[in-house]
Automatic annotation (TrEMBL):
GO terms for biological process: methylation; rRNA processing. Residues 3-88 form the PUA domain. Keywords: Cytoplasm, Methyltransferase, RNA-binding, rRNA processing, S-adenosyl-L-methionine, Transferase. Belongs to the methyltransferase superfamily. RlmI family. This is Class I SAM-dependent rRNA methyltransferase. It is found in: Cytoplasm. PROSITE patterns: PUA. GO terms for molecular function: methyltransferase activity; RNA binding. InterPro entries: Methyltranfer_dom, PUA, PUA-like_sf, PUA_sf, RlmI-like_PUA, SAM-dependent_MTases_sf. PANTHER family: RIBOSOMAL RNA LARGE SUBUNIT METHYLTRANSFERASE, S-ADENOSYLMETHIONINE-DEPENDENT METHYLTRANSFERASE DOMAIN-CONTAINING PROTEIN. GO terms for cellular component: cytoplasm.
Amino acid sequence: MTAKLFLNRNRKRRIETGHPWVYQSEVNRLEGRVEANGIVQIVNHQGVFLALATYNPESQIIARVLSYRADEVFDERFFARRIEEAWAYRQRFIGEIESCRAVYGEADFLPGLIVDKYSDVLSVQILSLGMERFKSQIRAALMTVFQPRGIFLRNDVQVRRLEGLPLETSVWAGNVPEKVEIEENGMRFVVDIWEGQKTGYFFDQRENRAAIAPLMTGWGNSGDHRSLDGHVGMDGIVAINGQAATDRHQHQPLERGADVLECFCHTGAFTVHAAKYGARHVTAVDISLPAIEVAKENARLNEVDDRIDFIEANAFDFLREEEASGRNYDVVILDPPAFAKSRRALEGAIRGYKEINLRGLKLVRDGGFLVTASCSYHLRPDMFKDVILDAAFDAHKVLRLVHWSGAGKDHPEIAGVDEGHYLKFAIYEVRSR
């Protein structure tokens, strides 16, 4: 008989509203015997059934919901059904895309399981003790649903230690090359599945990278036309090689592409998008030389490497140096790694986010744009907006919000589960005051 985990009477009714986690502090008692990684019934204080969940008494998250059916059987067919549902969701909302996050843990009702699909190769992370128990069923289900060339296990993330699990990476099935080429928004990118961060690529910014397209052109009718590679006549028409350059539809001066700075460029996804969308020049900065080497490869792959300068540097130092030199840009993009990986780190993270946004704002030309993001869950959306406003106050800037969003459609969120809302992405027009 399945053991029962009784919840406290005076608790928030989170499980009833779809939250997939039970914390130690919410538990009144356990009735029956169950091993760590076993299955328990979650019941309220009156014994009313709520869900079936995996159990880990050593974790602060003592139970993770797997099903709301009391008679559910967790075999290969169960996992194949859930994975098929997750894949159908992606096909409905992001179309015929071959590379994306195919399974997103709790948001796809498979807590602790991450599956990223890179064309015909899968990269998998198993993050919870309960899901580790079902490894063989999961592998079989993935092979059935996707029939991939290979599956790679990227179980090298520190959160596994909190679940009492070892860190490991290995080829889990089939043949897995070290690098795979994928397509995103019509562009090509090389993904290092074996050694790249997380599972190899950050799919969560797909739609956000597409959102910068309007910022990359249209700069010829404002600012200094002499920045174009040509001569500006008395009538404002740009002459290139002796020929007047005009827009053939509107008979206006030829519009130049944006001058862009991206800090924390990683493997160049935003950088390449900026150049492909028409940026005249992109300065791309990252502290990791291996990441820059992949970024250079991606730039060459998309034939935009002649308009990009890659710089290996600490972004904080680089921003200060650019400000001191009086340099400015039409668009500044800031996409840093998580500064706050725990609640204790939040205060320092806020200082870090304000610093980079303050420096970034000072580098934006009047009428230009700041593109900024945070993937720190502990920095809530309202806090992130406040940080940017504080930076704008200190920089003597007025901001107009152009775009605000989170992660893409392949990273769904369960309503009421704040833990799933980690990514904040904003585009602001910047004006001086």
